[in-house]
């Protein structure tokens, strides 16, 4: 069963534990600049929103790569960058409409979330469960029902 990262921005406190865990998992150092997940700070509202690759079905990055350096991990469904194949042309960064693929100047390659091979460090590290790793087939029905109930969703009178 495939899983995906689910982000609930309402629970994010901006602690950056997700960024720290990601950089440590992938580079062995606590450096938020090297993280594949970022926490965007909306200064006007004080809202913090984590964002990373959504592993979208369309996979514009994968289709745009001229050397086929991005492939699908069959076990996790993650679109993964093969650094040995990547030539650092950055075409994938242009193709991604979400801006979640980044060029790493030190390596001359790109990086993006690979779901840590099926055990995402960011989700494990998040103290508020703003980031969770859930079944990809989750439809959000419970969330829709809760919202409908807030709006006065009642059984109809027959």
Automatic annotation (TrEMBL):
Listed Pfam families: Fer4_11, Fer4_6
Gene3D superfamilies: 3.30.70.20
Key words of the record: 4Fe-4S, Electron transport, Iron, Iron-sulfur, Metal-binding, Transport
UniProt protein name: (Fe-S)-binding protein
Keyword Nucleotidyltransferase on entry: no
Alphabetized GO MF terms: 4 iron, 4 sulfur cluster binding; metal ion binding
The organism of origin for this protein: Rhodoferax lacus
Signal peptide (from-to): none
Cited PROSITE patterns: 4FE4S_FER_1 (PS00198), 4FE4S_FER_2 (PS51379)
All copies of domain 4Fe-4S ferredoxin-type, residue ranges: 3-33, 44-75, 77-106, 111-136
Tagged with keyword Metal-binding: yes
Highest taxon of the lineage: Bacteria
């Amino acid at each position: 069963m495939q899983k995906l990262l689910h982000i609930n921005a309402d629970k994010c406190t901006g602690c950056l534990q997700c960024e720290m865990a990601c950089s440590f998992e992938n580079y062995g150092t606590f450096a938020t600049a090297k993280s594949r997940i970022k926490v965007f700070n909306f200064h006007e509202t004080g809202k913090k929103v984590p964002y990373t690759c959504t592993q979208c079905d369309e996979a514009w990055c994968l289709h745009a790569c001229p050397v086929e350096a991005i492939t699908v991990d069959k076990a996790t469904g993650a679109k993964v960058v093969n650094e040995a194949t990547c030539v650092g042309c950055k075409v994938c960064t242009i193709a991604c409409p979400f801006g979640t693929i980044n060029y790493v100047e030190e390596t001359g390659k790109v990086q993006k979330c690979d779901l840590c091979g099926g055990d995402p460090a960011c989700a494990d590290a998040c103290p508020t469960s703003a980031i969770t790793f859930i079944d990809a087939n989750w439809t959000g029905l419970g969330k829709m029902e809760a919202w409908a109930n807030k709006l006065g969703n009642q059984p109809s009178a027959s």
